[in-house]
């Protein structure tokens, strides 16, 4: 199961399939349904993705893969499952909302592939993170070869996948798999600070930033920035924020630099 809980502008999505929140066909469908639910919740400005029971997600259900292997057309069934996983993760990645994965315990295989489809990742030091599919004679088929390489570069991605390497949160931060890592007893404080800092920003700005960043390397990124500036400047929220900034700022003489750090 996958639960979606909303608290104001924050939505928390929890993977909950005991014991390690692995993916089978129903869990893939549940992720797709959660994505639709979030897409239809205009009041949500940020999504946290977590795993229940101490683990984020230990990947695809190995029992399911074994069952497909013993079926009449194993290649077709496994390929269909991988394609459905790819599709669900692509839809999740395409959400306009900022998404943050909180990685604890196992975050491997399809679990890491899901985290890679989020905008940001924060991990506990004791998390175990990686794409070990090669040890089973498989590959990360939910988009992991593509997203991990895009995130950390070719050499590091191959190192992790070729060696079926699992790393802790600190090493994952050093390798740029995650943006933050913290000792287990400090993780929730860190998550709270990330949430507070993000929700303090303009929700419309966050969506436009995500849209523009998704177009890096294309012919449309710069034009999309200009269009976003036009749209945002016309919103009441932006007008209110600019006025609040001006009201709180001391007068600045021509040619001087701000004394408030450019706040």
Question: How is this structure best described in words?
Answer:
The chain has helices at residues 25-39, 62-69, 74-93, 110-116, 144-152, 154-162, 169-174, 187-199, 203-213, 221-233, 236-248, and strands at residues 2-7, 10-15, 46-51, 99-103, 106-108, 120-124, 128-130, 180-182. It is 47% helix and 14% strand. Helix 1 runs parallel beside helix 3 (74-93), helix 2 (62-69) runs antiparallel to helix 3 and helix 9 (203-213) runs antiparallel to helix 10. The model is unreliable at 252-263 (pLDDT under 50). The protein folds into 2 domains: 2-199, Alpha-Beta Complex (2-enoyl-CoA Hydratase, Chain A, domain 1), CATH 3.90.226; 203-248, no CATH class. It is globular. It is an alpha/beta fold.
Mean pLDDT: 91
Query: Termini, distance in Å?
Result: 43 Å
The proportion of residues forming helix, as a percent range, comes to 40-55%
Largest sheet: 6 strands, mixed
Task: Give the CATH class of the largest domain.
Answer: Alpha Beta
The SS-based structural class is alpha/beta
The global form is: globular
CATH architecture group name of the largest domain: Alpha-Beta Complex
- Going across the biggest sheet, name each strand in turn: 1-2-3-4-6-8
| Total beta strand runs | 8
Report low-confidence residues grouped into runs of 5 or more.
252-263
**Strand proportion:** 5-15%
CATH topology of the largest domain: 2-enoyl-CoA Hydratase, Chain A, domain 1
Give the number of domains.
Answer: 2
Counted by DSSP, the helix tally is: 11
Order of helices and strands: EEHEHHEEHEEHHHEHHHH
Q: CATH homologous superfamily of the largest domain, by name?
A: 2-enoyl-CoA Hydratase, Chain A, domain 1
